[in-house]
Backbone:
């Protein structure tokens, strides 16, 4: 089983969108049983809150089910449990590394690095542009899939 944790600042926009999109991808391929997929925040600001209405609206508009989710903060135990901990920007990566106490196993990644880019996925909390966030996530998730599909 491949265990993937998507991480952003609050766990209500980018990471929950990525979680829902990636879950939908593996479900459609009949591979749901081969993955454990979750998401978390680096902050405590939104703990307990559901996905942002913009995330829900965007996913519904493209026919992707929103996974049932409540925001939670990433823990050091998550680092031990997950194979891939995938952040959305360099601030997430820095905070994820701090929470994990380092990255000795090389499990922390920035999503668009799988697509050969150091670019961040813009936070729609600030931009209010969930379409661009979705498009960037699609690029990153497709590249991530190419990276891991040979490991199945």
Residues:
């Amino acid at each position: 089983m491949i265990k993937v944790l998507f991480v952003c600042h609050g766990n209500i926009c980018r990471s929950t969108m990525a979680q829902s999109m990636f879950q939908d991808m593996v479900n459609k391929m009949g591979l749901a049983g081969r993955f454990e997929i979750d998401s978390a925040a680096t902050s405590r600001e939104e703990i307990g809150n559901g996905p942002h209405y913009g995330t829900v609206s965007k996913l519904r508009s493209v026919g992707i089910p929103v996974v049932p989710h409540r925001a939670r903060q990433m823990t050091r135990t998550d680092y031990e449990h997950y194979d891939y901990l995938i952040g959305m920007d360099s601030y997430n990566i820095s905070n994820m590394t701090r929470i994990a106490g380092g990255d000795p196993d090389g499990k922390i990644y920035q999503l668009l690095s799988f697509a050969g880019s150091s670019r961040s996925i813009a936070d729609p909390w600030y931009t209010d542009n969930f379409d661009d966030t979705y498009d960037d996530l699609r690029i990153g998730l497709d590249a991530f899939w190419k990276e891991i599909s040979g490991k199945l």
Observations:
- Residues 2-151 form a domain with the Rossmann fold fold (CATH 3.40.50.2300).
- The mean pLDDT is 97.
- The radius of gyration is 14 Å.
